[in-house]
Structures are given as structure tokens and as C-alpha cells.
Amino acid sequence: MDNKFFSDEDPYFQVCDRLDAGEKPEAVYAWAQKQRGKAKDEVLRDEWDEALRYIREENPGLQVS
């Protein structure tokens, strides 16, 4: 992404890229949970929480553990 306002490292955009590429929401959700677990700072964990919430909201009926 060549936009200085947004970062390719932003969890929301990483999730959207994977979903747009056709990955199953369940797989993206599992991946995002692992990424959140690796996050060492609270701000990044909060950003991952927002990305996880986005996946749940956009995919009602999503089976997550």
C-alpha cells in the first residue's frame, strides 16, 4: 500500500487483505488470534482485538473457539 496514512502492518488491513484474497473467515480469525497472542504491546493487542471483532461482525454465524 502506497498510502502514508495507513500501514501495511495494521491488523485491520492485514485481516481485510486475507479476506479479500478469498481466505475463509474461520482461518483468518484463527490466524489473527495467533497474531494477537504474539503482540507484545497493549496498543497492538487492542488493534488485533478490533480486527477480530470486525471478522465476527462481518461473518455472523462464524464458528470460533
TrEMBL record:
Descriptive protein name: Uncharacterized protein
